[in-house]
Amino acid sequence: MKNWHKLVVAGLFAAAAGAAAAETVEATLENGLKVVVRRDARAPVAVSQLWYRVGSVDEVNGRTGLSHLLEHMMFKGTKTVPAGEFSRRIAAAGGQDNAFTSRDYTVYFQQLAANRLPLSLTLESDRMANLTIADDVFKKELEVVKEERRWRTDDQPTGILAETLYANAFVANPVRYPVIGWMDDIQNMKPDDLRAWYREWYAPNNATLVVVGDVDPQAVIALARKEFGPLKPKPLAERRPQLEPEQKGVRRVSVKAPSELSYLTLAWQVPRLTKLAETDPYALSMLTELLDGHDAARLPRRLVREKKVALSASSSYDPLGRGSTLFTLTAVPANGVRLDRLEAALKGEIARIAQGGVSEAELARVRRQVEASRVFEKDSMFGQAMQIGSLESLGFSWRDEDEMNRRLLAVDAAAVKRAAQSLVDDKLTVVTLVAQPLKGRKIAPPADTKELR
Q: What cofactor does this protein call for (predicted)?
């Protein structure tokens, strides 16, 4: 998801008084389905999100893209709900629905009037167990996914850059696979591949139901028990760690693509958060906020406005995930600026912090920004549900949010300095995308490098 690290840092690593006052209740059904309900009575609506703990990190070479294609097929009907009828019924009830797939999970969601929540849960429980994957429908949807890949990746410089980065920064960890899948894997996918994937992972004991809205939590849990309770749990496949071998030197990759702009990304392998008490991920999160958390942050201020070596420059780090992760700097060179000069400028900003540290005043500004972003995030029922679902799906609890926030805001200047010092060349991957003539093609990639997230 674009800007995901912002959701993590400003959304999951911060707290708001309004959220603390909200009533949140959880229960686990006998079949293993986790249900988390938060009452937010500011409007007579409800957000329902069903999170399956399966994504591209669960896939293997030759079978990439299964999770994403299955997301598409989940709208193609069950034995009792014809193709397209799911969304039609939600729309007829005045609601909206959609879904998305990531490396770590697949999520299906609806937003509708609170009194129509039973419709949402009835439809979701049905397709959890009774999805129909017809050969002819599968074939048509496969073509849709191929076109989506062409549009989002093959014909987009930023898509090519991101895919090239992960495929080269990692050699063993499955985060190297694109969520949408490699084109060759998509072309050779069979209906039975998808049926097996559905049987293997779509089960109540591999899912979390999150509801936020003007609802009675206990009534929602009772409704979930009625709709999902009869479904049987399944034995889940063993998830092996697939640890990334230690990187022992700089990796450099250059790709050419039709584009109006060239791009440069520096990416270091860094730790992710696996336990609340770990310190490095919080420091890295604060470091990325210092570099790119607001318009006056170091990268846009120094490289874009002062030195004028970049049209845009950004930093990204996602501390939460089931696979390996990267700390990245991405920039678009200003007219006439060579990529090697831009690389030196990006490294220079890391070196300035690694050598000279940051002031307490600068840290205080970032802390205020993080807290303000969190307050704004809590205005959204959908955002609250996202925070709950992501934490629950990544091995944490929604209850951990406040402690994560406390630890992030406790990061001091010495910890930020150590985080910058940890970004050494032996763990670095450099990817350049060299712009080629468009030859009549109309490609309008964003100059804002945040679009790469």
A: Zn(2+)
